[in-house]
Amino acid sequence: MQTQTNTAGGRNRIATVWLMVSTVLVGLMAGLFFAFDVSVMPGLARGDERTYVTAMQNFNAVIDGNGLFGTVFVMALLAAVASAVLEYRKGRRGVAVWVGAAAALYLVMLVITFTVNIPLNNELADAGDAAKLTDFSIVEKFKGTWVTTNIIRTLLCTAALTALARALVQYGRAAAR
């Protein structure tokens, strides 16, 4: 069974698929973070602390228990790395550099997520039932740090998506030769 099918211009279907998959997955993550930046978090900030804690605990529980989210979250990096390796091996160094840059940007986002956002989410979960909370000091710390790092995650994913778009342009040019 042939796993790599060459098409016109030296393109490779598997390389094409990985490049497209990584672009779509990173785009989905950029969109998720952006939606939190421009609607979810500002909307929650308009309410009271109890509502804020309840909503964030619920969002985090849904995301933690959602296999589709986890798959997209992890596969975005794996697809970008696979694409960069395939492009490099096919001799399309320009494409590989852009995809590699996207993977690096996405990796930085993952590091921020695992070192800042997830620990904050866990602290909020550990606070317990929002209906029984009397000390809401955790909310101000959470809001300031979580919102700021989410903006950074949005920017990193958007930059990664931009790099992948550039890789697609480079890929198209290489295929046209």
Sum up the structure in keywords.
disordered N terminus, 177 residues, mainly alpha, elongated
Rounded Rg: 20 Å
Oligomer: single chain
* Count of DSSP strands: 0
Number of helices: 5
Sequence-ordered SSE layout with sheet pairings:
Elements lengths: L12 H33 L3 H16 L2 H23 L3 H34 L10 H40 L1
Give an overview of the whole structure:
It is elongated and about 65 Å long. It has one domain. The two termini are 28 Å apart. It is built from five helices and no strands. Helices cover 82% and strands 0% of the residues. With 177 residues, it is mostly helical. Helix 1 (13-45) packs across helix 3 (67-89), helix 3 runs antiparallel to helix 4 and helix 4 (93-126) runs antiparallel to helix 5 (137-176).
Précis, in short:
82% of the residues lie in helices and 0% in strands. The protein contains five helices and no strands. Helix 1 crosses helix 3 (67-89) and helix 1 (13-45) runs antiparallel to helix 5.
